[in-house]
Design goal:
The complex is a heterodimer of chains A (about 325) and B (about 325). Chain A has 2 domains: about 55 residues, no CATH class; about 230 residues, MetI-like fold. Helix content of chain A is about 75%, strand content about 0%. Chain A is built from 14 helices and 2 strands, in the order αααααααββααααααα. A two-stranded antiparallel ribbon of chain A has the order 1-2. In chain A, α5 packs antiparallel against α10, α6 crosses α8 and α7 packs across α8. The N and C termini of chain A lie close together (about 5 Å). With about 325 residues, chain B is of the alpha/beta class. Chain B has 12 helices and 12 strands. In chain B, α4 packs across α5. The chains are: A mainly alpha (about 325), B alpha/beta (about 325). At the A-B interface, α9, α10 and α14 of A face α2 of B.
């Protein structure tokens, strides 16, 4: 297990280096931030001074080296626009996105997996067919449309829930959370619902497929032949067996939602990472873009790492191969 | 003769598929006494396994037991409520499956799986359950059972896994065990060990055993009585010696004739002509008549089993044959 951990850490380091280079070059290609940062009617001297001050007069490789050197010291640089350390900026926005993502993905899994298992257990029932039909809708309807309709119905017409923002937050360990206040929860509900519908459909389909396969297997027949109740057969035998694809998709979706909740955050003016990155791209705030993309890569690596550990916990056969 | 522990009469299990009704089991009568072994023999698709599952009450839709009675220790099982039937399974009738690689749950510890079978019928403390599980493993010949409890199925060989399955089947001391080709997937030496182990365990505990197989040599060594199935019916039933040495039904004769043997080296192997008929379109009358060397006009009429020399044979020509 220790060998596996070290191996994965080394892999992660290599991936991070490659990502940093790709991101740096990619962001460099988007455009010159100077054109956005200073007004076109300043003197040539000021213009040159500003370019020099941001280090933009250096060749690309040297800029990258400077960036990497600072990065190793834990310094992501300063945002051009906000004029504050990028790391602080991102960390101040992360909790908002994190709680939104957790609410959406966890909710989707906790509701979707049992529903999917039911649909797989009784595939011919009307409820199961209805579920499968709805899951197709969940897949196909675009997120922004769902968000707008939810706002229209619940915020504008019914007036039950707020249309945007985070509401009141509570500070725990120096981080602001909205899910701890009733008002915050009300603000969280619509964006989380918007984000979760697609994931819910995904979880339903995955769990259903797993259930359909497992229910025909010999170990289920054998468990029934022992006189186990259906509840024990399903929760004791089947669930653990079908968990691996569910955990995989959960991890991937968690990462993807965390990184790319942009549309939903924009619609609901949720002050999270998605809004930050969109604003940064518009203002060509290079340090923020680079740091954000590296953070996303890092999050994916960490999530996959946790998922791998979860595999080993779920399936003993994978533990043996790793020793 | 002791009172049989299991009595099956006129059992019929049909599957209602879109193409039509598949009569997988169609009027099966059989009985087993305590401590006795009944061999249930037939080709693939002859209804042996469906018979086994019918006795367990584990027929999934579109299948259904449409007629007949299954009496276990005098109690009628057909028509029991699902929960009452669940309590019969595992405690009174246990089953062992063909492929030991598939019957154990790959992600649960051996000890956990056996304990689940135990706890399905009894409330036990953890320590007591563990003690009994270890004892059950030891009884089926698994060395140092205490340490093996925490192992996973993939750490066991096929033979060991089948022993675990047997331990699970035996743990609640059932009246009857249905073994569905449990040695087919194992190599011959392991097969021999498992066979003698099962024989010993069932004799010690007076457990009745139904051994489903297509392997006549296994039946010869193990069973007391034998039922030969063809197309969902029992075509010949009787004492294992008598049936194997002097088969009366043309199908049994064909089946025994197709066993390769040393004495006929160099001679082409004999086989039964034709194929098992589709259960959707069985010929009227005797289902074997399309492949039978003795078939004639009389075979179009269905006949009940004929009793000859203390065994039952379902063939119109049996009197002529037994006289010959």
């Amino acid at each position: 297990m220790v060998g596996f951990l070290i191996q994965r850490l080394l892999q992660a380091a290599v991936v991070m280096v490659v990502i940093s280079a790709m991101v740096f070059v990619g962001v460099f290609a988007i455009g010159n931030p100077i054109d956005v940062l200073i007004s076109p009617d300043v003197t040539q001297q000021i213009r040159l001074d500003t370019i020099k001050a941001y280090g933009l007069d250096q060749p690309l490789w040297r800029q990258y080296l400077t960036f990497i050197t600072r990065l190793v010291q834990g310094n992501f640089g300063r945002s051009f626009v906000f004029n504050m350390p990028v790391l602080d900026l991102i960390l101040s926005r992360l909790p908002a996105t994190l709680e939104l993502t957790l609410a959406a993905v966890l909710g989707a899994a906790l509701i979707g997996v049992p529903l999917g298992m039911f649909a797989g257990y009784r595939p011919d029932s009307i409820a199961a067919k209805l579920l499968m039909g709805l899951s197709v809708l969940g897949f196909s309807v675009p997120t922004f449309w769902i968000g707008l309709i939810l706002i229209l119905v619940f915020a504008v017409n019914l007036g039950w829930l707020p249309a945007g923002g985070r509401g009141a937050t509570v500070s725990v360990l120096g981080v602001e959370w909205s899910f701890l206040t009733l008002e915050g929860l009300k603000h969280l509900l619509l964006p989380a619902l918007t984000l979760s519908l697609f994931r819910l459909a995904l979880m339903i389909r995955l769990a259903r497929a797993g259930m359909r396969e497992a229910i025909l297997s010999d170990y289920v027949k054998f468990a029934r032949a022992q006189g186990l109740s259906e509840a024990k057969v399903i929760w004791g035998h089947v669930l653990k067996n079908i968990s691996i694809p569910i955990v995989t998709v959960f991890g991937l979706e968690f990462g993807a939602t965390l990184a790319f909740a942009v549309v939903t955050e924009t619609i609901f003016s949720w002050p999270g990472l998605g809004k930050l990155i969109i604003d940064s791209i518009q203002s060509l705030d290079r340090p923020v873009m680079v740091a954000y993309l590296m953070l996303v890569a890092f999050l994916f690596i960490m999530i996959n790492f946790v998922v791998d550990i979860a595999y080993a916990a779920l399936d003993p056969r994978l533990r043996a191969g790793r020793a | 003769m002791t009172q049989p522990v299991l009595e099956v009469a006129g059992l019929a299990t049909h599957f209602f598929t879109r193409e039509g009704v598949v009569k997988a089991v169609d009027g099966v009568d059989l009985s087993v006494a305590r401590g006795k072994v009944l061999g249930l023999v037939g080709e693939s698709g002859s209804g042996k396994t469906v018979t086994g599952f019918s006795l367990m009450g584990l027929i999934d839709p579109p299948g259904k037991i449409v007629a007949g009675s299954v009496k276990l220790a005098g109690r009628e099982l057909v028509g029991l409520s699902p929960d009452a039937m669940r309590q019969v399974r595992g405690r009174q009738i246990a089953m062992i499956f063909q492929d030991p690689m598939m019957t154990l749950n790959p992600v649960l510890r051996i000890g956990t799986q056996i304990a689940m079978a135990l706890r399905a019928h009894e409330t036990l403390s953890n320590a007591e359950a563990r003690r009994r599980v270890a004892a059950a493993l030891g009884r089926v010949g698994i060395p140092s059972p205490e340490e093996r409890l925490d192992a996973y199925p993939h750490q066991f060989s096929g033979g060991m896994r089948q022993r675990v399955a047997i331990a699970i089947a035996l743990i609640n001391r059932p009246d009857l065990i249905i073994a569905d080709e449990p040695t087919t997937a194992l190599d011959v030496t392991i097969q021999g060990q498992i066979l003698s182990e099962m024989q010993k365990l069932c004799r010690e505990r007076e457990t009745a055993l139904i051994w489903i197989t297509h392997d006549l040599s296994v039946v010869a060594g193990l069973a007391d009585a034998v039922c030969v199935m063809y197309a969902g019916r029992i075509v010949e039933k009787g004492d294992v010696r008598a049936v194997l040495e002097r088969p009366l039904h043309p199908y049994t004769i064909g089946l025994i004739g197709s066993i390769p043997s040393h004495n006929r080296r160099g001679v082409p192997l004999r086989q039964i002509p034709g194929m098992t008929p589709s259960l959707l379109r069985l010929p009227a009358g005797c289902p074997f008549r399309t492949r039978c060397p003795r078939a004639d006009a009389a075979c179009v009429n269905d006949i009940p089993p004929q009793i000859i020399d203390g065994r039952e044979v379902r063939c119109v020509h049996v009197n002529a044959m037994s006289a010959a």
